[in-house]
Write a structure and sequence with these properties.
The protein is mostly helical. It is built from five helices and no strands. The chain folds into two domains: 46 residues, no CATH class; 53 residues.
């Protein structure tokens, strides 16, 4: 039995154009469906009022990725960055910050899995393995 793994990285020959394209996509999505963004902001404001800025920002991030159907692997990258930073912070004796980053890594991982499940339910044709 042979297992192969193919990893494809995006080409960043022109990073300024890539960043510009991302910001244009976000702006166009938000302006084309403003009610979704307002609903996400209202829910995030409730979480801010009840639990503080950290909870509000995490919920806002999750809801924006949910309602605008952005690529959920971006949050997965946040999870990996948070997880990789933990041993570095522990080596620098920043135990409190490392613990916070570990919690963020867990939150980002849960967000990624939840968004992946939603994507599977919305677009089951993307996950059809019978063609391979």
């Amino acid at each position: 039995m042979e297992i192969t793994l193919k990893v494809q990285f995006p080409e960043f020959k022109r990073p300024k154009e890539f960043v510009k394209r991302v910001f244009l996509r976000v702006r166009n999505d938000v302006w084309s469906k403003p009610k979704r963004g307002v609903a996400a902001l209202v829910i995030a404001a409730v979480f801010f009022w009840m639990y503080g800025i950290g909870a509000a920002l995490l919920w806002l991030l999750f809801l924006l990725f949910l309602v605008y159907e952005w690529e959920n692997r971006i949050i997965g990258v946040f999870s990996l960055i948070s997880l990789v930073s933990c041993p570095i912070l522990l080596a620098l004796n920043q135990h409190d910050v490392a613990e916070t980053m570990a919690v963020y890594a867990y939150f980002f991982l849960v967000m990624t899995v939840a968004l992946q499940i939603v994507e599977y339910k919305r677009h089951p044709e993307r996950f059809d393995n019978s063609a391979t």
